[in-house]
Amino acid sequence: MIQKKSLLGGWFCICICLFSISTVAQTDYQNYSELTKKLKSLQSKHPRQAKLQSLTKTIGGYDIWALTLSSGQAQDNPAIAIVGGVDGSLVLSTEMAVQMAETILSEHADILKTTTFYIFPNMSPNASEHYFAALKYPLTGNAKKTDDDRDGKINEDPFEDLNNDGLITLIRVEDMTGDYVMLEEDERIMVKADDQKGELGTYKVFSEGIDNDKDGAYNEDDEGGVSFNKNFTYNYQYFQPGVGEHAVSEKENRALLDFLYEQWNLYAILTLGPTNNLSSPLKYNAANAKKRVVTSILKNDEQLNQFLSKKYNTITKTKDAPSATGKGGGFFEWSYFHFGKLAMSTPGWWAPKYKGDSIVKAAKNSDANFLQWAKQEGLSDYFVPWKTINHPDFPNKKVEVGGIAPYKMYNPPYNLVEAISKKHTDFILEIAKLQPKITLQNIHVEKVNNELTRVTVAVHNNGFLPTHTEMGKKSRWLRSIKVGLELKQGQEIISGKKIQLIPSIDGDSSIEVTWLLKGRGTVEITAGAAHTGSDSTTINLK
Amino acid sequence: MTNKPKNLVVVVWLAFILPIAVLAQKNEEIFRAAGSPHNPKVQVAFNKYYTAEGLAAIGKKIADAYPNLVKRFSIGKSTEGRDIWMLAVTNYKIGNADDKPGFYLDGNIHSNEIQGGEFSIYTAWYLTESFNSIAHIKNLLDERVFYIVPTINPDARNNYMLEANTGSSPRAGMIKLDDDRDGLFDEDGYDDLNGDGSITQMRRKSDDGNMIIDPKDPRVMIRIEPDDVVTAQRYEYLGQEGLDNDNDGRINEDRPGYYDPNRDWAWKWQPDYIQRGAYKYPFSAPENRAVADFVLKHPNIAGAQSYHNSGGMILRGPGAKEDIDTYNREDVRIYDAIGKKGEKIIPGYRYLTVYKDLYSVFGGELDWFYGGRGIYTFTNELFTAYAYYKDKNGGRDQIYSFDKDLMFGDGFTPWETFNHPNYGEIEIGGFKKNVGRATPGFLLEEEAHRNMAFTLYHAHHMPRLSISDLTEKSLGGGLIEVTATVKNDRLMPTHASQDLKYKITRPDYVQITGAKVIAGMLVTDADFGVTEEQQVNPDTIEVTNIPGNSVVKVRWILKGNSNYTVTVDSEKGGIATRKKGKNN
Fold it and tell me: Which of B489, B484, B583, B490 shows the shortest CA–CA distance to B541?
């Protein structure tokens, strides 16, 4: 009896625990294992629409998850990819990707009949785990051992937490030979002395740590690793820290590209990452678009991007985004310049501009403005106040540790994440509604004489978006629209082609195809490509 | 005394295994020809070509015959799962192989460009068979290591040889691609309609044709010029042998491939729409990835050669004109010195630069070797029409008379009629796939030897380091100043300019051990005593570069007398050591 009781008690406890997990509201970002659990639960809750697979295991031992959402055969519908964790310091993006998947499954499952979603919540699991570590600093690299300063020694100068607050911020050293000064509008912020204003530098500023290898540079060779978002082929920055020994050198980069290259139904990619072409579109530059190595968005795609931006700004009701262009080797730039898909990228969130009021003037400096916003919102822990320490490298100088806390400028307070994710879900659903859709229209069968029939159809793109971006027309990774006839015995083509390939069709536009056919009976006409959907019809030869 | 029985056993055992070497001929039956291994342990006929398996078998024989000179291993698997065999050739009794300056050599990246395979095998064979008889070769193998991969494209090498192809197909490896973007992969390849194992030409009698048969040579087709009055039967060309396999109204439009394994390398890689032939991303062909992974793990590689065909060219980068800044004057001087020597060693070959003399392309193997790794690299385009009659002025058309005069018609499939399902009655014929680019059999060994000689010259000029001088001076108070002169007596520096620019390989270390070091410094001007002190870790002076044919001096201040040793350790220049009071 006693035994039984305790067993019951045990069950009771487990139930309580489960209950509490599912009801207590999430208050902070979730780590790798929590998100993995979440993804697995999505799959088990929606077994027919969600399929979870691991693309690879990183050298750090993390699975790279791919979640496919579709109600039917995933490959049969045009698809959108959503990629998070492109930059491991943007923990928001991973959370967004998972919440967007959840919202689509639970509130908009209908869309999965016509659009497939491939969702990759976290491409930088090794890096994002630093957010949850005892010592926080926004690394973006994977677990690859790297010699960041290329001096032949590996990880010989890491960061050190000198004030023991669990965060890596900055150190400032009072030194007449330094070239930093305190910012006038907020003395907590250190900026370079402005020659034009006749300022003289009085501080040296370094990242928080010790010059372990006595080379004059601070923390220039920490554990580093290779950053997912610096390891792609477009404008790859050779031999810079975090880029890897060559482009697409890392398992997770390769695994994602290998997967995407196989999904012929993919027409759009939404990158949740540091680059932003949605708040304001990429700008066309004729000279750069015409060079052999293209570095400008193409003309028609600029218009498309303008259209997407308008949609984005309207639906997400965001504004004042800081300009954010790629720094080379980025995933978003690859998705457009080297893959040719409809490419979109947004960080999802940025600190709204503090506008000031009658008493407090808005700071012009973005860091200072950010701190004003944080204060206005009543947020704590956004700044580590400068505190004097003893630093072994500067025995007779005043050295202080402090600065803006890591992660805070680019990841919102957690309670905002749900609303941000919802708005971005609305945006991507809108894009899905506009997707290219090939149909056969105005099918016209005309008897020429007893033997011959003329068949004419309009191959029409019902979607608002073109079947191919202008860049996509050049890419070998988007198929042509194939129009084919299935002939039976005794039927013969007198004029026209059995198989015809159409390079692209604009949104709400058609290409007319005509045949002169000999014989009797039925003929099946099919048109389409994996990323545009297909249509077919059967006609009777007269 | 107790050793005696053991020795006896060894002798008996040796006598037993010696018959393995019976492949070699009896010495009294032959007379040495200067310049060739006299009586090789491994007999190889260098007047024929070998499949991937054939090359692998020869490589194994060489490795088995010379275990102290060759280590043979697979650096990875091809698309179809074949091993990519490497022969690492050096004198394994001296030093650590991967610490010696390394020379990387491969062939056959383009599937149809086959003779690089035989030339690479010839090199491994010649080095091993000459080690005991030629002092220069012994020195090379004592001091350097050769990483030889006869074919880095075994699948498509076999496809070229075993399937019906032209002399120019396939160029790609065996990954299937949808060339015409119709959703089907490799669905319309060549068809060997006349069953001769080659893809030749199709022609058809046509009153509107613009060709006629040369009345003096029925193999030759002549183009009709606007003012010609033609009474002979007119013909039209219908392209290369094939059918419309997928009924789309086109013939042979989606053959195996197409991607170009030599547009797949990571330096300034560009996608297919910019650089035709690029695949997914750098090293997306598994064979190239295997090479790249090996090279990344072997920073000792200082020189490289990648054999192609054809045209008789000794090519250096840059491959793309956009990449012109990657090569500076210092590098070009070194390339020029080696390349010009090559023109002399291999008559008929010209030393050229890819982007301006051939074409401007991104993603080539030689670009990554130099741009990405700082390795001085050439690509030889093997075989040239010069070989037909040893005549620089003769063009490609000499092949017709060469085929008649020297090959007695072996290279040509005569035109024969064929009933084609799309074209009706046609004729099929032309030069076989092993003519035009692949060196004819009886010329193969000489060309292999000359190309190898060029490569050995290239390898000879990889950096060679020594501590050429070690001097001591007493500074009083028990302090001793030691100056070490580190000499590089070959053409190449330990760091190419590209290597210095991007710090691709680490600095060279000059280290003193067995002494109490008070200070260490680099001597920048020995005559005027100008030095740069290295405060951190002064035992090991970091030297950014040891230029070719020059010296670098480093200095230490030591406390007290000691029996020290100085070692220079360079990734590309090897390791050299000198003890106090001893010569090199």
Answer: B484
